[in-house]
Amino acid sequence: MAGRPRLRIGQRGKISRRYLGGGVWEAFCRFRDADGVVRKVQRIGPADEFDKRGKLAEDALVEALAERRTPSADQIGSDARTLDTYRFTAGKLAKFIGGVRVGEASTARLDAALRSMRTSHGLMMAKHAKTILRGGLQLAVLANVLGANPVRDVQPLRSGDRPKGGAVALTADQLPDLLTKLRASAFCRDHDLVDPTTLLIATGLRRSELLGLRWADVDTTAATVTVNGRLVRVAGEGLKWVPATKSAAGMRTLPLSRFAVEMLAARRGVPYYGEQTMIFPSKAGAWRDPENFNRAWRTARGALGVPGVTSHSFRKTVADLIDEEGRSARVGADQLGHAKPSMTQDRYTTRGRVHPEVADLLDRAVINAE
Q1: Both 194 and 257 in a single domain?
Q2: Which of 256, 197, 202 is nearest to 366 (CA)?
Q3: Total domain count, the chain
Q4: Which of 24, 152, 154, 214 has the fewest CB atoms below 10 angstroms from its CB?
Q5: Which position has the higher pLDDT, 342 or 198?
Q6: Residue 2: inside a domain, yes or no?
Q7: Cβ–Cβ < 8 Å for 198, 259
Q8: What three-state secondary structure class fits 32?
Q9: Could you tell me the CATH number of the domain that includes residue 315?
Q10: C-alpha distances out from residue 81 to 74, 84, 85, 251, 344, Å
Q11: Residue 25 and residue 21: Cα distance in Å, rounded?
């Protein structure tokens, strides 16, 4: 009789659960690590009298295994969207450096190309391009075509008007002024920046999540919005809406502040916008490209008095406001869609709850703009 089939590297066996008493469960399984050794991995879930089958413990175990697993050919399906992103970036990069031979790839030439990428397509795409160049030219180093990788001496890529610390968070005092300037800006109205930026302020969503929202995801009566999916770029298909994963880092329901509910209700009544499936469509009635949105925002932000603010700044702003209110890191993680503030908190704190207090504090922060 044949024994159990051998686990592949990065593969787990069947998950078992054991009740430890007091509402606490343990989940465990066999897992084959990157070194080829099969080990028992276990996690204990938080005490919860309503958890009758140990689901919380299994969730903690599955998340721990995901972090433990190393990339392999078995995971290429989940990484395909990342490959599509790099293919798209490579196509843009080719316009700036496509005719340069390996031997001509000097640090100065690469630096100029990457800064042109940043100017035309934004900081994130320029960083992706740098990753592509570093990996490709490292192959040339290994083949003894180049003595050293010229990318290593390229100057760090940063937004030209942003400090080194990354995205700049706004303070509560700055939000009312920004909303007022947004609503008064003809450029922002013409390029449909007012409403989506208002919702970014109210939720701290990722840009791909914001532009992937549909009217079906909003419940103005309950004052909530559910993140059911996001936009990704797929090779040969362009922008595509994909469903969110059923985890705290993906699918989640967020409370909406009063100013966000009022904005959405007003937008729903606008003939063109209210007739689309998506809340923030392109002018052609398709999904709005996050890169185009980002480009328009970069053009507008200087006149709004926030030259260093990016779409990511609003996520940091919401996180700061939650922290300043004395709310736990778990509240912030649930709001922003982070998988965990720490593994300890994941094990002993219930995840994925809706926190109405976040909407309340955002309402208070912008009350002067009402």
Answers
A1: yes
A2: 202
A3: 3
A4: 152
A5: 198
A6: no
A7: yes
A8: strand
A9: 1.10.443.10
A10: 15, 5, 6, 18, 31
A11: 7
User: In this model, does residue 292 exceed pLDDT 70?
Assistant: yes
DSSP 367: G
Same domain, 344 and 271: yes
Q: How far is CA 358 from the centre of its chain?
A: 19
pTM for this prediction:
0.53
CB within 8 Å of 356: residues ≥ 6 apart: 255
**120: which 2 tokens?**
């035309």
The amino acid sitting at 181 is K
Which band of pLDDT confidence, cut at 50, 70 and 90, is reported for residue 52? confident
β-strands 252-255, 238-243 pairing: unpaired
Range of the domain at 292: 174-369
Task: Encode pLDDT of 243-266 as tens digits.
Answer: 887 654 568 888 888 988 999 999
Of 178, 232, 181, the C-alpha closest to 202 is 178
Residue pair 9/34 in contact by the 8 Å Cβ criterion: yes
Distances (CA, A) of 366 to 13, 203, 302, 360: 51, 13, 21, 10
Same domain for 217 and 310?
yes
Grade residue 22 by pLDDT with cuts at 50, 70 and 90. Answer: confident
**Residue linked to tokens 């204990």:** 44
Tell me the DSSP string of 33-55.
-TTS-EEEEEEEPPP-TT-SS-H
* CA separation for the pair 309, 142 (Å, rounded): 40
- 351 backbone dihedrals φ, ψ, rounded to 5°: -100, 165
Q: Identify whether 167 is part of a domain.
A: no
Sign of CA dihedral 282, 286, 288, 292: negative
Exposed / middle / buried, residue 358 (Cβ in 10 Å: 0-12, 13-18, 19+): buried
Residue 21 domain flag: yes
Same domain as 309, residue 196: yes
User: Is 365's pLDDT higher than 50?
Assistant: yes
Give the alpha-carbon dihedral of 314, 319, 321, 323, to 10 degrees. -170
State whether 146 and 180 are in the same domain: no
